[in-house]
Structure formats: structure tokens, C-alpha cells
């Protein structure tokens, strides 16, 4: 197993390098870089995309002010100073190699427009995204596994039919639409003012007691976590049900029942471990999926300042250090989680040997 893990760790390097190369090359052809953002503001256009729509584009790393939309009213010396400040006076290859060297030392630089390091910015926004990802995943597992087992045991019954219909309806509802519905109903939109509209804590959170802080925290996350969890129930529940159905039909279950073992002993003493292999081992990847997927819309609707909004705002502002730094960071997390998922399979069922399979 050690050799397999070592190979997977070594594969992280070329994979991350490929991700960064593709995205760096793409930015060379995307109009509206950070310099054009500043020029648009100085020219009073408000947003760089208004100038782009009139024609022209930016050539990153070029040294002439003619490459920038709306720069004719600004002196070339000022444009050259901006390029030097942002590092665009150097060739793209030199900038890319310098960026990769810095990232190898986990030096992600500083945001162009926030005057804060990328690492500090990510750490500042991380609690919101971890809150949504962790609690959504935990709640989805706590509900989906018992429900899936119950559906497998009562396969084809009225309970199974009705719960399947409810799960499919919940899965079909977009998360952002369900979030808006929750706001309208329970956050003072038109009906009830039960939950707060924004943030993770109240303004007087620091002055609260420990129990008050815990209660206030869960009071604030109730709606966003519910909105981000609703679609996760379907996949996990049906996966659990199908896994149990596959195991129940196997010969060792028939033999256990023939020996006179209680049904609960058969289900939870024999079937559970084998059926839950794919469900439990997939926990890290499910968490990352919830952590990354859909966070932007949920965070925007509930006014939560997390990584989803950070990535979106950085992309709009062309804040390249934040874009590439978070991309590298999240790509690394995703690859490491893939390895952890494999280790979870071995932990749940030691009979699995990835090295022998590769051989």
C-alpha cells in the first residue's frame, strides 16, 4: 500500500502543473485584465466590460498602452508603471515559471485589489465554506443511510414508493430556488421572520455565553445548510438502498438466515459493512463536492462571505493572484482527498488491495 500511496503523491505534481498551465494560458486570451480594470475606473466607465464590448482586447505582458481599451487619455508612463507593478512587463513564460516556483514554496502572493495575502484571504473565508460543506455532508449521511436501509428492507412497499417520489422531487428542485423559497417563507421575505437573513453570527456574538454562541451559530446556519443539503439526499439514499439490495441477494445472507440469525443481526452484523463500503469510503469526496459545488449561489443568497463569493469576485475583478492561488490550493485539496478516499476503502474493508490491482 505504501508504494501505491507514493505513486499517487508523485502524480499530484504533474497534475497540478497541467491544471495551472491550462488556466494560465486561457487567461492570456481573456480580455479585461487588472490593468484594464483600473483604467476603466480612472476613465469613469465603472466596469471594464463596458469598454470591452466596444472592441479591442488586452494582451497580457505587452508593453504598449495601445493594447488597453480606453487608455488613450492616460500617459504611457503611467501604463508602464502599472504593468511593472503587476508584473506584466515580463514575458508570460517568465511570469508563469516565477509563479510556479513561488507556489512550490506555498507563497501565493498578495491580492491586487485587497492589500492582503492570498493565504490570509483564503483562511478568512474558509470558515463559511467549511460550515456549509461539513454540516451539509454530515446531515446528508445521518438522514440518507438510515433511510436507504429502510427503503431496501421494505423494497417495493408504499413507504419505498412515496419516499422515492419525495426524494426525486427534492433532487429536481435547484438549490438556489429552494434557498430563495426558504428566505421568503422563514427569513422575513413575505411570511415569517424565524431565521436571520445574513451572516454566520449575530452582531452581539462576542458578548454571548458559550451556549448562546452555539445556539446563535446553529440559528444562522439552519437555512443555508438546509438549502445546500436538499439535493444530496437523493444520491446517497438511493446509493445506500441499491448497495443493500445487492448484498441482501448474495449467498452468505441466505446462509446466515438459514442458520436462524435474527434479521437485525443479518442486516447490521453481515450486510452493513459490505453494503456501506462505497458509501462510507466516499465521504471525503462527497464533502469536497458539497464544499465546492453550489457554494457561490448559496453564499450570495444568504450574504455569506465564503470561498465561493471570493472566487467569483476575483474572476470578475481579474485578481490573478487570488484566482491562481485558490485554484492551486483547491486542486491540491481535491487530489489529496482522492488519495484519502482510497485509504477509506482499505480502512472499511482491509481485503481491498490497490497495489495488486495495478499489478
Automatic annotation (TrEMBL):
ABC transmembrane type-1 domain: residues covered: 126-345
Alphabetized InterPro entries for the sequence: MetI-like, MetI-like_sf
Subcellular location as annotated: Cell inner membrane; Cell membrane
CDD domains: TM_PBP2 (cd06261)
Keywords: Cell inner membrane, Cell membrane, Membrane, Transmembrane, Transmembrane helix, Transport
Name of one Pfam family that matches: BPD_transp_1
PROSITE patterns, sorted: ABC_TM1
Membrane-topology descriptor: Multi-pass membrane protein
Presence of the UniProt keyword Transmembrane helix in the record: yes
Membrane spanning residue stretches: 9-26, 130-149, 161-187, 217-240, 275-302, 322-348
Gene3D superfamilies assigned to the protein according to its UniProt record, in alphabetical order: MetI-like
GO CC annotation, single: plasma membrane
UniProt record, GO biological process: microcin transport; transmembrane transport
Major location category of this protein: membrane
Family indicated by similarity: Belongs to the binding-protein-dependent transport system permease family.
Protein name in the entry: ABC transporter membrane spanning protein
Organism of this sequence: Profundibacterium mesophilum KAUST100406-0324
Amino acid at each position: 500500500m505504501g508504494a501505491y500511496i507514493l505513486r499517487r503523491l508523485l502524480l499530484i505534481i504533474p497534475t497540478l502543473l497541467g491544471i495551472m498551465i491550462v488556466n494560465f494560458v486561457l487567461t492570456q486570451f481573456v480580455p479585461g485584465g487588472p490593468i484594464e480594470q483600473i483604467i476603466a475606473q480612472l476613465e469613469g466607465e465603472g466596469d471594464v466590460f463596458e469598454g470591452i464590448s466596444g472592441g479591442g482586447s488586452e494582451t497580457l505582458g505587452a508593453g504598449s498602452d495601445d493594447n488597453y481599451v480606453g487608455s488613450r487619455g492616460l500617459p504611457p508612463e503611467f501604463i508602464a508603471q502599472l504593468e511593472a507593478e503587476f508584473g506584466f512587463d515580463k514575458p508570460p513564460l517568465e511570469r508563469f515559471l516565477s509563479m510556479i516556483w513561488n507556489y512550490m514554496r506555498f507563497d501565493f502572493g498578495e491580492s491586487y485589489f485587497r492589500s492582503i495575502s492570498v493565504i490570509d484571504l483564503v483562511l478568512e473565508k474558509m470558515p463559511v465554506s467549511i460550515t456549509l460543506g461539513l454540516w451539509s455532508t454530515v446531515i446528508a449521511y445521518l438522514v440518507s443511510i438510515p433511510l436507504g436501509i429502510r427503503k431496501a428492507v421494505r423494497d417495493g412497499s408504499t413507504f419505498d414508493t412515496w419516499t422515492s417520489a419525495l426524494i426525486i422531487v427534492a433532487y429536481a428542485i435547484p438549490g438556489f430556488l429552494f434557498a430563495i423559497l426558504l428566505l421568503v417563507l422563514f427569513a422575513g421575505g413575505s411570511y415569517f421572520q424565524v431565521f436571520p437573513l445574513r451572516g454566520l453570527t449575530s452582531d452581539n456574538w462576542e458578548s454571548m455565553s458559550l451556549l448562546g454562541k452555539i445556539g446563535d451559530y446553529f440559528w444562522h446556519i439552519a437555512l443555508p445548510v438546509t438549502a445546500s443539503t436538499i439535493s444530496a439526499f437523493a444520491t446517497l439514499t438511493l446509493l445506500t438502498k441499491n448497495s443493500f439490495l445487492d448484498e441482501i441477494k448474495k449467498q452468505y445472507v441466505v446462509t446466515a438466515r438459514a442458520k436462524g440469525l435474527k434479521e437485525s443481526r443479518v442486516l447490521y452484523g453481515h450486510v452493513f459493512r459490505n453494503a456501506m463500503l462505497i458509501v462510507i469510503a466516499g465521504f471525503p469526496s462527497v464533502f469536497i463536492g458539497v464544499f465546492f459545488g453550489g457554494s457561490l449561489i448559496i453564499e450570495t443568497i444568504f450574504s455569506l462571505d465564503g470561498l465561493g463569493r471570493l472566487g467569483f469576485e476575483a474572476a470578475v475583478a481579474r485578481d490573478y493572484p487570488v484566482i491562481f492561488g485558490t485554484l492551486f490550493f483547491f486542486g491540491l485539496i481535491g487530489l489529496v482527498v482522492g488519495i484519502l478516499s482510497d485509504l477509506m476503502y482499505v480502512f472499511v474493508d482491509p481485503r481491498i488491495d490497490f497495489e495488486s490491482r495495478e499489478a
